[in-house]
Every structure is written in structure tokens, then in C-alpha cells.
Specification:
Blueprint: H1 9-45, E1 50-59, E2 62-69, E3 75-84, E4 87-88, H2 96-104, E5 111-113, E6 121-122, E7 127-133, H3 139-151, E8 152-159, E9 165-170
Antiparallel strand pairs: 1-2, 2-7, 3-4, 3-6, 3-8, 5-7, 8-9
Length: 173
């Protein structure tokens, strides 16, 4: 039996089958492409950005070096390194700043330190002290502290929740 346009029904059924398979394969391809675009978007939408902030005058926000997460997602710390005069301080995390203070010739007791151990995270918008001084110190200690900041390099290696690695540097040389 012939139908419209004199096409054999079996041939029409084959064309329909081929068209159906083609549309299904095209839909699968578009779905995979859409998922890859969405994944890229998700990675960018949770990307952390750690920045250092140096405050060298006494303010209500503190005095010293702070780290902020200006990105959109949390920063997961992988490594925290301290350099004095471009030489890395090698010590365990608990004594890292104590060793740095010795090399900087500053009194460990009037300076506050924060070491970021691996697997800790810094949430979006969070501002944390890294190397700060109490606001009630004399001019000599303040001058020594400012000089110490210029000799100090800090490197934080971190990643996003998707494993994208990045780093933040203070006083890169």
C-alpha cells in the first residue's frame, strides 16, 4: 500500500527510525555539552581568591598583615610558607612563626601570629590576621615591626572545592 508522496511504508519506517536515532544522539550530545558548560560555570562560581592586606598604621581594623578571601567560594589551604629575606623557614607549623621571629629579630611576645595548617579553610569574605602587632606598643617596636614586614614573604597555596589550585603571595620578589 502506498501512502502520500508515493513512499513505501517500509522505507518511511526506516527513515523515521534513522531520524529518531539521529535526534536521540543529538540530544545526548547536547546534554553532555550542557553538563560540561555547567560544570565550568560551577567551578568559576566557587573560586576563592586570597589576597593579603598590609595595614602599617594603627587603625580600628588592626595593624599588620591580614589575609582575606575576596573570592566566591572557600579556600582550602594546602601549604603555608614563610620566607625571611627570601629564605624559607623550615619548621613544623607550631614553631614556624617562632623561627621567623628569631630571624626578623623581633620580640615574639608582642606580635600575634596565625599559621594556616593544611586542610583548614578560609570562607568567603573572611579576613584573618596573619602577622599583627598589639595596638599599644611603643614607636621603636612599631618601626621594627614595619621593617619586618618588608623582609617577610608569605606564600599560601590553596585550592577550591573543585580542586583548582592557586596561590597568594605577600611581598613577592
Amino acid at each position: 500500500m502506498k501512502i502520500f508522496l508515493n513512499i513505501d511504508p517500509l522505507l518511511l519506517q526506516q527513515y523515521t527510525t534513522i531520524a529518531t536515532v539521529f535526534i536521540a544522539v543529538l540530544a545526548l550530545f547536547l546534554s553532555i555539552w550542557h553538563l560540561s558548560v555547567q560544570r565550568k560555570h560551577n567551578k568559576l562560581s566557587v573560586k576563592p581568591l586570597l589576597t593579603f592586606e598590609e595595614l602599617t598604621a594603627n587603625t580600628e581594623r588592626g595593624f599588620g598583615v591580614f589575609v582575606r578571601n575576596d573570592g566566591i567560594g572557600p579556600a582550602i589551604i594546602k601549604e603555608f610558607k614563610i620566607y625571611v629575606d627570601n629564605i624559607q623557614i623550615i619548621s613544623d607549623y607550631k614553631h614556624l612563626w617562632k623561627e621567623a621571629a628569631k630571624k626578623l629579630s623581633i620580640d615574639y611576645n608582642f606580635v600575634m601570629f596565625h599559621t594556616f595548617e593544611p586542610k583548614t579553610s578560609i570562607n568567603t569574605g573572611l579576613r584573618l590576621p596573619v602577622f599583627t602587632i598589639e595596638q599599644k606598643v611603643n614607636k621603636e617596636q612599631t618601626a621594627l615591626f614595619k621593617k619586618s614586614i618588608s623582609r617577610l614573604n608569605i606564600e599560601i597555596l590553596y585550592e577550591s572545592i573543585y580542586g583548582q589550585k592557586d596561590r597568594s603571595l605577600l611581598n613577592e620578589s
